[in-house]
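Re: weekly structure request thread

Next one in the queue (99 aa):
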Amino acid sequence: MAILRCAQCRTRPQRSCTHRTRAWLYDLRLARPKRTSTLAQEWALDRAMAARQTCPKCRRRYTFVLPLKTLGCCLECHDGTPADPASYIAPPATHLLAA
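Done, posted below.
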């Protein structure tokens, strides 16, 4: 492990660098592999992303995060800007058939 010091402190190794530009350098060979997430964590993340990507008016799930705090819905519902059909997934159909 090493410390990358700022320009002011690199000439004075006896003093510790407390500036924001200080960085720790680690040896990658000693690093442990990243922990894999569980299935429940992936489901929770998908539900959270679905809430941010789904328009509350037309119920389409887009491939990007919608501006729900500012607009409250997708651009197509807000001002009529047509959305690219490849950018969303249509909501599930609700059948009102008796059979």
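The chain has a mean pLDDT of 84. The first helix runs from residue 39 to 53.
Next request, please.
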